TrEMBL record:
This protein's record includes keyword Transmembrane helix: no
Enzyme class (EC, first level): ligase
UniProt keyword list: Aminoacyl-tRNA synthetase, ATP-binding, Ligase, Nucleotide-binding, Protein biosynthesis
Family to which the UniProt record says this protein belongs: Belongs to the class-I aminoacyl-tRNA synthetase family.
Protein name in UniProt: glutamine--tRNA ligase
Domain of life (superkingdom): Eukaryota
UniProt domain Glutamyl/glutaminyl-tRNA synthetase class Ib catalytic: residue ranges: 64-356
Domain tRNA synthetases class I (E and Q) anti-codon binding: 452-527
Catalytic activity: tRNA(Gln) + L-glutamine + ATP = L-glutaminyl-tRNA(Gln) + AMP + diphosphate
């Protein structure tokens, strides 16, 4: 649950005592229809068969809430999808229902197996298990049969569905024989030459949306069986109907498709779910467009979809963001109809809140300065017990070797002392944190402040990435803010690699994605590229919010 007040900077106050996401999605809070009561929804089209179809629907579902998360497998999910995942899976969970993970795999040109795998991994990483994993392609035969039925019926609710030869402008008077005889399916038309269109006008004024188009591209699941593929406008509502979805939750830009959604189900006399829209979630200082991320990868601006500077979910995982923090952030944004554009520091605050409780403390130095203790108090190295969580020592300790040679941050020593400087300097000793000893430039005494140190050894081979924001402006896609386009707005200092850093030996056995708070430096996560003898850490967030935020 979210307790603390956070200002959004752009969207106003998020508020205090925000309820958990499940609390927000439970019961009557959203004023959604109950399963089987679709007809009570404003704008729902009731036909002579509606009540019989709803009765049959309840027989199949038992009155269970059913939602679905329907991503396109042509890229990696981003922070905006996290809200969609939480909304769809969360609403089902909050109301005792189930949620399908359904891949909208109707565009084989851009779909790759790695995207299918990553999408499911990210859903499960956020803590959700799909009731079933399905694909739009599972229903290609049924969808094609229904397309033929639309042609046979000729007159449907709101009009007819007709095939159209579209070299020039679409014409509603095209011969019905093209699609009926399967000429499109048999490959007798080239790509772009023929389409099947639904004869209706949508909310945004768009006329005759395309139902089928020709694509001579093998499908990853159906191979060469098809050279025609259905569109989202045709596929989505019918797949929802087949799976007996009760609440089709989608972002606000799909509101213009609501008319085609209802029209198509009713034209075929099949069960018609209800589409509900909510506001999408955007972040400043980033791009989430799949096309633009591909450009970033192709130009070498970022390493891949999981580059820690991006806000894809795989990138956030690599950077060390806990899934609980992302879910908490979605709860703070809330289930709103309005689009929310948030500052990244709000998400980072959620990360600190979780990592403060989860990440054990360790010591590290970024710019090591060698210090030799001339009167070391033992003949061999001592073992120092360091609490994993200093505020709660019941959560255990780890051992750190204390040797005659230690390393402190270069900035923790000055040859000349300024007023207010509390670290090591001639005539100004400091204590070594956790060690119980004090060092001075010439000898050891028992007064002074606290110095930060790390033991030498294997930990000397370590890389710490200090990832900053990839873009300089809040809205890198806005031509009025960045006339040269988003590629011209890249931050040249967005990734700094520190190769001389040292960490204490307690973290050398850490596994990929293990998280630590390096005292005074921030929260860090073990990068998957780490290997024996070469640890790589990504900085997740600083200990406190950066003053400039940008």
């Amino acid at each position: 649950k979210v307790r603390r007040r956070l200002g959004t900077g752009v969207g106003g106050e998020v508020g205090t005592e925000t309820r958990s996401l499940l609390e927000q999605l439970r019961g009557e809070a959203l004023k959604f229809h109950k399963p089987g009561e679709n007809y009570k929804t404003e704008g729902y089209v009731v036909t002579p068969n509606t009540m019989a179809l709803l009765k049959h629907h309840l027989t199949i579902t038992g009155g269970q809430v059913r939602t679905r998360f329907p991503p396109e497998p042509n890229g990696i999910l981003h922070i905006g999808h996290a809200k969609a995942i939480n909304f769809n899976f969360g609403y089902a969970k909050a109301n005792g229902g189930v949620c399908f993970l359904r891949y909208d795999d109707t565009n084989p040109e851009k779909e790759e197996e790695k995207y299918f795998t990553a999408i499911r991994e990210m859903v499960e990483w956020l803590g959700y298990q799909p009731y079933a994993v399905t694909h739009a392609s599972d229903y290609f035969d049924q969808l094609y049969t229904w397309a033929l039925e639309l042609i046979r019926r000729r007159v449907c609710w709101g009009g007819v569905a007709v095939p159209c030869h579209s070299r020039g402008s679409p014409s509603r008077s095209c011969s019905l024989r093209y699609f009926w005889l399967g000429d499109m399916r048999k490959g007798k038309f080239g790509e772009g030459e023929a389409t099947l269109r639904m004869k209706l006008v949508m909310e945004d004024g768009k006329m005759d949306p395309v139902a089928y188009r020709v694509k001579f591209t093998p499908h990853h699941r159906t191979g060469d069986k098809w050279c025609i593929y259905p569109t989202y406008d045709y596929t989505h509502c019918l797949c929802d109907s087949i799976e007996h979805i009760t609440h089709s939750l989608c972002t606000k830009e799909f509101q213009a498709r609501r008319s085609s959604y209802f029209w198509l189900c009713n034209a075929l006399d099949v069960y018609c779910p209800v589409q509900w829209e909510y506001g999408r979630l955007n972040l400043l200082y980033t791009v989430v467009s799949k096309r633009k991320i591909i450009r970033l990868v192709e130009t070498g601006a970022v390493r891949d979809w999981d580059d820690p500077r991006l806000f894809t979910l795989t990138a956030l995982r690599r950077r060390g963001f806990p899934p609980e923090a992302i879910n908490n952030f979605c709860a703070r944004v809330g289930v709103t109809v309005a689009q929310a554009t948030m500052e990244p520091h709000l998400l980072e605050a959620c990360v600190r809140e979780v990592l403060n409780e989860q990440a054990p403390r360790a010591m590290a130095v970024l710019e090591p300065l060698k210090v030799t203790i001339t009167n070391f108090p033992a003949l061999k190295a001592l073992e120092v017990l360091v609490p994993n969580f200093p505020a709660d020592e019941s959560r255990g300790f780890h051992k750190v070797p204390f040797q005659p040679t230690v390393y402190i941050e270069e900035t923790d020593f000055r040859e000349e002392v300024d007023k207010g400087y509390k670290r090591l300097a001639p005539g100004q000793p400091v204590g070594l944190r956790h060690a119980g000893y004090v060092i001075a430039v010439q000898n050891i005494i028992k007064v002074g402040g606290s110095g930060h140190w790390a033991p030498p050894g294997k930990a000397a081979i370590v890389t710490l990435g200090r990832a900053l924001r990839a873009f300089l402006h809040k809205n890198p896609e806005d031509p009025s803010e960045v006339p040269g386009g988003f590629l011209s707005d890249l931050n040249p200092d967005s990734l700094r690699v520190v190769r001389s850093a040292l960490v204490d030996s307690s973290v050398l056995s850490a596994r990929p994605f293990d998280k630590f708070q390096f005292e005074r430096l921030g929260y860090f996560s073990v990068d998957p590229d780490s290997e024996e003898g070469k640890m790589v850490f990504n900085r997740t967030v600083t200990l406190k919010e950066d003053p400039g935020k940008a």
